[in-house]
Design a protein that fits this description.
14 strands; globular; 6-stranded mixed beta barrel; Alpha-Beta Plaits; alpha+beta; Barwin-like endoglucanases; 2 domains; 4-stranded antiparallel beta sheet
Length: about 270
Amino acid sequence: MVKSTRLLGLLIILVIVSGCAPKGRYYQKQDSAPNEVPQKVTTQDAIATYQTYAPANMRPYTIRGIRYRPLNTGKGFSDKGHASWYGQKFHGHLTSNGEIYDMYKMSAAHKTLPLPSFVRVTNLKNSKQVVVRVNDRGPFYEGRVIDLSYAAALKLDMLETGVAEVKIDVIHVDRAGVITEGRNPTIIKKSSIKVNQQVFIQVAAFQNKKEIDNLAKGLKSLYQRPYLTRFEEGIYKLHLGPMIGEQDANTFLNELKSNDYPDAYKVYFD
């Protein structure tokens, strides 16, 4: 009798757990926003930098019977139409670029722009602007030109309406640091390195010095590059370099990003 009671109890627990468990990839049926604006949501625009396009996302694809062919470059691209946004339903899931969607960061989805791309989005109703990093595909609805993260939609003041009439302009940065924005013919030269300033690449930051030292030795052996570690505000930072120059830094940075260090970035020191 005792054994039967235990089995019955286990079955009840399993039924309850299975009833509460998420079903499928997107367990939330309808998308939604947080009940309150969390402190961790960013208000800072994405910073446009030179980044190589992901080859896997340059291939044509078909959604709902419609064939889409990604552009070879985003340079000179501008468009107008409706923007929508996506939130909690997709938060924490993979984007088309293989990254984790974070609704609290400045990102977006576009049907054909190369991934990743940087885009300035202007709300034509209130003139508010935001710069986002496009790392996903969508929105697959007629008339919608871009799908924004919750953070971007919040900054554009379009959460309540759900959609907004916008203008989008790609901010394109080439290897030399030359920037173009949309169809604007003006070419802006990105600030060059100051005299006597050296360029390094920050690969990682740890609180544990032993971890940073072990990583430094491994990367030095692998890439045959010098390095230095800096201790700032309780964190040990690993910087590879100095690089030979800006072009060398960009080439090596792209190599690191494709080899398990996607968050690496350039830093400058006198």
